[in-house]
Amino acid sequence: MYCQKCNANLPDGSKFCVNCGYKFEDNKLDKYCFKCGEKIKSIDIFCPFCGIRQNSGYSQQENSNINKPDYTDDKPINSNNKIINDNEKNALSGSIKRLVTLVTILIIALVILLPFHYVIGYDSGLKIFAKQNLSFSYTFITKKTVDEIIERYNKANLWEKISIREEYIVKKLMAEGILIEKKD
Question: What ranges do the domains of the chain cover?
Protein backbone atom coordinates (compact mmCIF):
# COMPACT_ATOMS: atom_id res chain seq x y z
CA MET A 1 0.00 0.00 0.00
CA TYR A 2 1.06 3.60 -0.54
CA CYS A 3 0.56 6.81 1.44
CA GLN A 4 -2.20 8.92 -0.04
CA LYS A 5 -0.32 12.12 0.84
CA CYS A 6 3.36 11.49 0.00
CA ASN A 7 3.05 8.23 -2.00
CA ALA A 8 5.56 6.40 0.22
CA ASN A 9 5.53 2.58 0.03
CA LEU A 10 4.08 1.21 3.30
CA PRO A 11 3.26 -2.22 4.73
CA ASP A 12 -0.34 -3.30 4.11
CA GLY A 13 -2.71 -2.33 6.93
CA SER A 14 -0.66 0.68 8.13
CA LYS A 15 -2.61 3.28 10.08
CA PHE A 16 0.07 6.03 9.79
CA CYS A 17 2.63 6.91 7.15
CA VAL A 18 6.20 6.30 8.37
CA ASN A 19 7.47 9.00 6.02
CA CYS A 20 5.11 11.97 6.62
CA GLY A 21 2.95 10.84 9.59
CA TYR A 22 -0.33 11.01 7.66
CA LYS A 23 -3.13 9.16 9.48
CA PHE A 24 -5.18 6.85 7.32
CA GLU A 25 -8.90 6.58 7.76
CA ASP A 26 -10.39 3.15 7.21
CA ASN A 27 -12.85 4.36 4.58
CA LYS A 28 -10.06 5.83 2.42
CA LEU A 29 -7.89 2.71 2.15
CA ASP A 30 -9.82 1.07 -0.65
CA LYS A 31 -12.08 2.06 -3.48
CA TYR A 32 -14.06 0.27 -6.14
CA CYS A 33 -13.31 0.18 -9.85
CA PHE A 34 -15.91 2.27 -11.61
CA LYS A 35 -16.08 -0.22 -14.49
CA CYS A 36 -15.99 -3.70 -13.00
CA GLY A 37 -16.86 -2.81 -9.36
CA GLU A 38 -13.96 -4.81 -7.86
CA LYS A 39 -12.37 -3.53 -4.63
CA ILE A 40 -8.97 -1.98 -5.43
CA LYS A 41 -6.35 0.06 -3.59
CA SER A 42 -7.04 3.75 -3.40
CA ILE A 43 -3.71 4.57 -5.02
CA ASP A 44 -4.26 2.30 -8.02
CA ILE A 45 -4.28 4.32 -11.23
CA PHE A 46 -5.45 1.32 -13.27
CA CYS A 47 -7.75 -1.46 -12.12
CA PRO A 48 -5.76 -4.72 -11.71
CA PHE A 49 -8.88 -6.72 -12.72
CA CYS A 50 -10.11 -4.96 -15.87
CA GLY A 51 -7.25 -2.55 -16.69
CA ILE A 52 -9.40 0.58 -16.98
CA ARG A 53 -7.93 3.92 -15.82
CA GLN A 54 -9.47 5.06 -12.54
CA ASN A 55 -10.77 8.47 -11.52
CA SER A 56 -8.56 9.60 -8.66
CA GLY A 57 -9.71 11.07 -5.39
CA TYR A 58 -12.68 8.80 -4.61
CA SER A 59 -12.83 7.07 -1.25
CA GLN A 60 -14.57 3.73 -0.76
CA GLN A 61 -17.73 5.45 0.44
CA GLU A 62 -17.77 8.03 -2.36
CA ASN A 63 -16.90 5.42 -4.96
CA SER A 64 -19.66 3.09 -3.80
CA ASN A 65 -22.19 5.92 -4.27
CA ILE A 66 -21.22 6.40 -7.92
CA ASN A 67 -23.68 4.97 -10.39
CA LYS A 68 -21.66 2.38 -12.22
CA PRO A 69 -22.58 2.66 -15.90
CA ASP A 70 -22.42 -0.43 -18.05
CA TYR A 71 -19.38 0.40 -20.18
CA THR A 72 -18.78 -1.85 -23.09
CA ASP A 73 -15.75 -2.02 -25.32
CA ASP A 74 -17.68 -0.73 -28.35
CA LYS A 75 -18.23 2.76 -26.89
CA PRO A 76 -16.35 5.53 -28.74
CA ILE A 77 -13.45 7.18 -26.89
CA ASN A 78 -12.35 10.79 -27.33
CA SER A 79 -8.76 12.08 -27.42
CA ASN A 80 -8.61 12.27 -23.61
CA ASN A 81 -9.34 8.51 -23.32
CA LYS A 82 -12.78 9.23 -21.89
CA ILE A 83 -15.81 7.41 -23.12
CA ILE A 84 -17.99 9.72 -25.21
CA ASN A 85 -21.54 9.96 -23.94
CA ASP A 86 -24.58 10.28 -26.20
CA ASN A 87 -24.75 14.09 -25.84
CA GLU A 88 -21.12 14.49 -26.92
CA LYS A 89 -21.72 12.03 -29.75
CA ASN A 90 -24.80 13.97 -30.92
CA ALA A 91 -22.93 17.29 -30.69
CA LEU A 92 -20.07 15.84 -32.72
CA SER A 93 -22.50 14.42 -35.25
CA GLY A 94 -24.27 17.80 -35.48
CA SER A 95 -20.96 19.59 -36.05
CA ILE A 96 -20.02 17.19 -38.82
CA LYS A 97 -23.44 17.62 -40.45
CA ARG A 98 -23.08 21.43 -40.33
CA LEU A 99 -19.60 21.22 -41.84
CA VAL A 100 -20.79 18.91 -44.64
CA THR A 101 -23.72 21.26 -45.32
CA LEU A 102 -21.43 24.30 -45.47
CA VAL A 103 -18.99 22.58 -47.84
CA THR A 104 -21.90 21.44 -50.03
CA ILE A 105 -23.28 24.99 -50.20
CA LEU A 106 -19.84 26.35 -51.12
CA ILE A 107 -19.43 23.77 -53.89
CA ILE A 108 -22.89 24.54 -55.27
CA ALA A 109 -22.13 28.28 -55.13
CA LEU A 110 -18.90 27.74 -57.04
CA VAL A 111 -20.62 25.60 -59.66
CA ILE A 112 -23.28 28.28 -60.13
CA LEU A 113 -21.07 31.37 -59.90
CA LEU A 114 -17.78 30.42 -61.49
CA PRO A 115 -18.80 29.75 -65.12
CA PHE A 116 -20.83 32.96 -65.57
CA HIS A 117 -20.56 36.73 -65.53
CA TYR A 118 -23.31 38.48 -63.59
CA VAL A 119 -24.01 42.05 -64.68
CA ILE A 120 -25.87 43.85 -61.91
CA GLY A 121 -27.55 47.25 -61.90
CA TYR A 122 -28.55 47.92 -65.50
CA ASP A 123 -31.90 48.29 -67.30
CA SER A 124 -32.85 44.62 -67.12
CA GLY A 125 -31.65 44.36 -63.52
CA LEU A 126 -29.49 41.25 -63.98
CA LYS A 127 -27.77 39.86 -67.04
CA ILE A 128 -25.96 36.55 -67.02
CA PHE A 129 -23.60 35.29 -69.69
CA ALA A 130 -20.97 32.57 -69.90
CA LYS A 131 -17.29 33.13 -69.17
CA GLN A 132 -14.53 32.18 -71.57
CA ASN A 133 -12.70 30.27 -68.81
CA LEU A 134 -13.36 29.41 -65.18
CA SER A 135 -11.95 32.20 -63.06
CA PHE A 136 -13.09 34.63 -60.42
CA SER A 137 -12.26 37.68 -62.54
CA TYR A 138 -15.29 39.72 -63.49
CA THR A 139 -17.75 37.31 -61.90
CA PHE A 140 -19.87 40.22 -60.69
CA ILE A 141 -19.88 43.22 -63.00
CA THR A 142 -21.38 46.39 -61.58
CA LYS A 143 -21.85 49.87 -63.00
CA LYS A 144 -18.59 50.81 -61.25
CA THR A 145 -16.71 48.04 -63.10
CA VAL A 146 -18.13 49.20 -66.45
CA ASP A 147 -17.26 52.83 -65.62
CA GLU A 148 -13.66 51.79 -64.84
CA ILE A 149 -13.37 50.00 -68.21
CA ILE A 150 -14.78 53.07 -70.00
CA GLU A 151 -12.39 55.40 -68.14
CA ARG A 152 -9.41 53.15 -68.96
CA TYR A 153 -10.50 53.11 -72.63
CA ASN A 154 -10.98 56.90 -72.81
CA LYS A 155 -7.50 57.55 -71.35
CA ALA A 156 -5.79 55.07 -73.69
CA ASN A 157 -3.89 55.88 -76.87
CA LEU A 158 -4.83 54.32 -80.21
CA TRP A 159 -2.86 51.07 -79.73
CA GLU A 160 -4.14 50.61 -76.17
CA LYS A 161 -7.72 51.15 -77.37
CA ILE A 162 -7.28 48.42 -79.98
CA SER A 163 -5.91 46.13 -77.28
CA ILE A 164 -8.77 46.95 -74.88
CA ARG A 165 -11.36 46.22 -77.59
CA GLU A 166 -9.80 42.75 -78.01
CA GLU A 167 -10.21 41.87 -74.32
CA TYR A 168 -12.77 39.12 -73.82
CA ILE A 169 -14.80 40.96 -71.18
CA VAL A 170 -15.02 44.11 -73.33
CA LYS A 171 -16.16 42.07 -76.36
CA LYS A 172 -18.81 40.33 -74.20
CA LEU A 173 -20.05 43.61 -72.73
CA MET A 174 -20.30 45.08 -76.25
CA ALA A 175 -22.12 41.97 -77.53
CA GLU A 176 -24.59 42.25 -74.64
CA GLY A 177 -25.18 45.95 -75.39
CA ILE A 178 -23.75 47.13 -72.09
CA LEU A 179 -20.77 48.87 -73.70
CA ILE A 180 -21.34 50.83 -76.88
CA GLU A 181 -18.48 52.31 -78.85
CA LYS A 182 -19.17 55.78 -80.16
CA LYS A 183 -17.68 56.58 -83.55
CA ASP A 184 -16.10 60.03 -83.77
Answer: 1-71, 73-113, 116-175
